[in-house]
Amino acid sequence: MITHQVANSILFVIWPGIYRKYILFSSSSYRVNMRTNLGLILPLLFILAACGQQPAKVAATETNPYFQRDSNFLPVAAGGNVQITLGAMDQDQQLLTIKADINHQQNEKVFNLPVAKTIDTAELYKFVWDTATSCYIAVMKKNMEPRYYHASIQDGYLKILQVGTAPVRISDYAERLFAADSIGRKMVKSFRRRVKSGQLMEDLVVETKSLQPDSIVMNVTYGAVSKSETMAVPHFLNAGVLPTDQPDEVDYGVLQDGRFVVLYNIKLNAGELRLKQINKFSGVSATSRTEPVQSK
């Protein structure tokens, strides 16, 4: 029970202006003051208690792995098979059929979705396996935002569900894959451009040749100067040239994990052809990733 003295102390701490007015009035009526005091303090105590609990909610959200970003996230090997079939594209909405075969179970679900019609059908959807029995499917909608579905083993059964929001690490990765499609359309296996550098006006030519399944040669020529670099690149990755916004500079690399990874930067400086290695592969297996090259 809050006594008159305790109420005065609390009011002085949390609301000194009201406390001073209250003291002037308290000499005339103790009972009226006590009711006023409690009427002011109790709501304030509830507000303070609620505010004190708010950081805990934020902390819980920040530590929830569902909402955490992970720029190093990589999908696992597919633990089954998931297929997408789209209905007639001349309709306002398309029938989206998802067939899944995971852990010796089969399931099929049909959804209605207005899909994007400005990109190739093969680029409309992406699969992201986060475990051997869990696959997220991202399908690009007409408004150019992905809709997510989830095929997974839950409670011992294979289920295919639409999800409002995919885990952030999944959506980030899927969006990189969609962006990589745009980059891939700009990549070329062979590159030729007329470039003026210093006193020279010559063709800058970049070509790729395969030596072995996991080894390629990059040939670069500018005028009478020709340079070659042999490098290890996993055979399932396509290497190519990506132009930059500078006419005398291009990047040579691969698309991996939804990113364009630069292996070499090719640049002309006052007529001089310069090649700078940026990244290299540490191996050629399916799990191999690039690592930065130490500057000399």
Mean of pLDDT: 82
Task: Look at the helices and sheets and give the structural class.
Answer: alpha+beta
Q: Please work out how many helical segments DSSP would assign.
A: 4
Query: Unreliable segments (pLDDT under 50, ≥5 consecutive)?
Result: 10-15, 17-32, 54-61
This entry's quaternary arrangement is: single chain
Per DSSP, what share of the residues sits in E-state strands of 2 or more residues?
Answer: 35-45%
Radius of gyration: 32 Å
When the domains are counted, the total is 3
Count of strand segments: 17
Spatial strand arrangement across the major sheet: 4-5-6-7
Major sheet size, sense and barrel closure: 4 strands, antiparallel
Provide the helix percentage. 25-40%
Question: Order of SSEs, N→C?
Answer: HHHEEEEEEEHEEEEEEEEEE
Descriptors:
296 residues; alpha+beta; 3 domains; four-stranded antiparallel sheet; 4 helices; elongated
Characterization of this structure:
- With 296 residues, this protein is of the alpha+beta class.
- The chain has three domains: 4-63, no CATH class; 80-186; 191-292.
- The chain contains four helices and 17 strands.
- The strands form five sheets. A four-stranded antiparallel β-sheet has the order 4-5-6-7, covered by helices on one side.
- Helix 1 (4-14) runs antiparallel to helix 2.
- The longest helix has 34 residues, at 30-63.
- The chain starts with a helix and ends with a strand.
- Mean pLDDT is 82; it is low at 10-15, 17-32 and 54-61.
Q: How does the SSE layout of this entry go?
A:
Layout: H1 4-14, H2 16-26, H3 30-63, E1 80-86, E2 94-102, E3 105-113, E4 125-131, E5 134-140, E6 146-154, E7 157-163, H4 168-186, E8 191-197, E9 200-212, E10 215-222, E11 225-232, E12 239-243, E13 249-256, E14 259-269, E15 272-277, E16 279-281, E17 290-292
